Amino acid sequence: MKATHGRVVSLHYTLTDDLGVLLDTSRGQESFSYLHGYGNIVPGLESALEGCVAGFSSAIQVAPADGYGEYNPQAVFEVPREQFPPSEDIQVGMQVQGEGEHGVMNFTVVGVNDQAVTLDANHPMAGKTLHFEVEVLEVRDATEQEQAHAHVHTHGHDH
Ligand code: ZN
Question: Could you give the number of structural domains in the chain?
């Protein structure tokens, strides 16, 4: 069975950056499953997996534009330190949530002093070329409920 729109693909993946640094992997854990054709994974990976079958194994390189987007230097901005509770220990590298243009967004703290906190709205993997090693384990039809929800129901999913 081929991975096409509305099918569920189960795979193992390892993700590294340009320097070979490990960013993420499913190895040693349960395999990763997604509903193909619904934009649930980065576009470059989804298009590379189009039509693949169980047993497909490949190295797939995804450019930033087809991954988590180009890095946008204008998405870095300062907010007054008093917008955060005085007790909160703000540190560089932390992820914080706040209201953005598209509802609740995640920001990375890239600077902090007594007056201001500098936040970066870019995805932590923005601007990175993604190097995937994938091994497709299974391709199956999605259930009607999975198609209606536009995501996969695996064990642990509670509805
Ligand atoms: Zn659901």
Answer: 2
